[in-house]
Amino acid sequence: MEEGDSSSSQSPAIYAPLRRAILEDDWNAAKHFIETHSNCLGAAITKDQDTALHFSVAAKRTRFVKNLVGLMTSEQLALKSNDGRTTALYFAAQSRIVTIAKVMVKHNKNLPSILPSHLKGYIQDLPLYAAIVTGNRDMVSYLYSKTPIQDLTSADRTELLKATISSNLYDTAHKILATELKLAPGNKDLLWEALEMLARKPSEKIGSKSQPSVWERCLNSCFRGRFCNKALMQASAHQLVCRLCEELGDDKCDFSPPDMLQHHKELVVEAARVGNIEFLIILIRSYPELIWQRDDENGTLFHVAIKYRQVRVFNLIYEIGVMKDNLGTYKNEGKNMMLRLARELPSQDRLNIVSGAALQMQRELLWFQEIEKIVSKSSVDKIEEIKTSKDIFVDTHKKLQKNGEKWMKVTASSCMLVATLIATVVFPSAFTIPGGNNQEGIPIFLESNWFTNRLFKQARWLACWGKIYNQS
């Protein structure tokens, strides 16, 4: 606590009635306490040095905040808790309640830009940073408009940029980029880190086009983004990747060729590993030579795609013409790299993309057969190598094969159980009761559409029950 009034040195236990009133949303009790303790608004009422305003904001008591702000001075609004690090506006940014933030900023316009005095440049304690990390778009939009971004250092603005990428707030990221980040050569790595964060994003986060369609823009305008938010975000992310590539591409003088090569290698490997196909397409269009870029294991992006079973990334190999035959000949320690990666089991999380051991085994077999087609056309010792690889494939997939056989047996048993139940219980009861038979001996409900629909609903219910029973 930075204000040196007499009450700030008193024990927080004295303020227990005030804390209780805030938690119970009892303004009358709080008002009475404030009137009898004139200096309590500038005092620390908790062990963490929180003022009554900090405590009210953290408890999301909007009415309390409005009333307290009306009683406090601008200096009291700027008091910090947590060892002199954060103002109450920081808590407001985390609360997602824009009304609270507006009330406070209205009475002290400097609040959005206050940072810890003893930790110069500690951007993580800026209210805007807290709002970005929380991911509340409305709060970010408001605080961005009230924060003097140009007064921040380029390094701090880049940290904000990285936070917006992490929270998928690409529109704010574009605004930060527009402030002309003039980073020193030593700090350019921060932009590479931002680009690498985009490389790690799932493919669906980055769109295939840089602009949403006219139809999507119209829908977004009419319905305030309810239906086309995803399309707009994807287009915005696409633009951001392009802008960062341009920003870094224009400053080649700041990096030596080995540094540029290392950065590009990291981007390619990360994007291929997570299957970020759109990011890779943008990057390869700017730097076509990255198709041949080798990672630390001497493999290209296609080898990474095989290792992590990323189908969409691997399919790019069919768009590079005869060069794919060249890639099929790459070897490491005398062994064909593509075949070696295809015959090994992937990580469990990649296997679990498909449910059921039998279907997982089928997918693995399809991968191996597809790699064989590419390698067989280019590898000189293809017959001996493929035979060996097949044997190794069988050995490495023995456990999965056995699990697949068990899965098929259990699934077949559960299906048989359901079929037996339907045959022995549902059909006899359906054609005998209720309703009985008519004069010609035909069940009365047999020709009823309602009854037929109900019959099939019961069959589906039994099938679902059988599946649940099987899984348990």
Automatic annotation (TrEMBL):
Gene3D superfamilies attached to this UniProt entry: Ankyrin repeat-containing domain
Domain PGG: 405-451
Pfam families with a match to the protein in the record: PGG
InterPro entries documented for this protein: Ankyrin_rpt (IPR002110), Ankyrin_rpt-contain_sf (IPR036770), PGG_dom (IPR026961)
Protein name per the record: Ankyrin repeat-containing protein ITN1-like isoform X2
Source organism (scientific name): Juglans regia (English walnut)
Gene name in the database record: LOC108998918
